[in-house]
Amino acid sequence: MGNRLLEEIKYKIDQTKFGTWRRYGYANGSNFEEFKSHAILFGLPLVHYTYGRNPETGGRVVAKGILAVGRFAYGVIAIGHVAVGLLAIGQLAVGIGLGFGQFSTGVLAIGQAALGGWFGLGQFATGYIAVGQVAFGQYVLAQVGKGEFVLSMQRWDPEALKFFKALPLIGQWLS
After folding, report:
1. Could you give the CA distance from residue 88 to residue 82 in angstroms, rounded to a whole number?
2. What is the rounded CA–CA span in Å between residue 134 and residue 99?
3. 110: Cβ–Cβ under 8 A, 6 or more apart, which residues?
4. What is the pLDDT of residues 37-57, one digit of tens each?
5. Closest among 19, 46, 24 to 35, alpha carbons compared
6. DSSP conformation class of 20
7. What's the DSSP call for residue 2?
8. Which of 170, 107, 112, 113 is nearest to 141 (CA)?
9. Listing from the earlier edge strand, what are the strands of the sheet with 47-51?
10. Whether the Cβ atoms of residue 148 and residue 129 lie closer than 8 Å to each other
């Protein structure tokens, strides 16, 4: 049996009018797939999608594009287990604007652990406005909360009540 690392990798290449698919099927049935759009904006492909392990390196290919989708994704809109972008969706979502995921950051952060700059919503949340089971911020709505204006099991600030009642989605529950 030869050294597989020294063998030439033969991809199945499909050209479409939108972009190029590069695929490889392993003997065990697993696959590697990558799509890059022909359209480029700011030096990045409009769409970059990756799946599986690269047969040349054995590692994951990082999806980088305006819309990036893969296990590891970096883009304006990034979707993946680890996603970094203006809008990030993933298990670990590092969003500049919006982070949505199990652990998320961003100006707006939504997730189990949401570290928001302006707004955080999650089981554990931080932000200027923080809503969660445990939350820290300026205006806080939580089971256990710490901040200047707090609605919690231990504290019921009139200013916090007025603030949260004015919010369209939250206010209806506080009436």
Report:
1. 9
2. 18
3. 98, 99, 100, 104, 120, 121, 122
4. 999 999 999 999 999 999 988
5. 19
6. E
7. -
8. 170
9. 12-15, 19-25, 31-37, 47-51, 63-69, 72-151
10. no
pLDDT tens digits, 80-130? 999 999 999 999 999 999 999 999 999 999 999 999 999 999 999 999 999
Which two three-digit tokens encode residue 111? 């997730």
Token pair of 157 as six digits: 């600030």
φ/ψ of residue 118, rounded to 5: -100, -45
CB-based burial of residue 33 (10 Å sphere; 0-12 exposed, 13-18 middle, 19+ buried)? middle
Find how far residue 110's CA is from the centre of its chain.
10
Token match 């022909």: residue? 38
Measured CA to CA, the distance from residue 65 to residue 103 in angstroms comes to 22
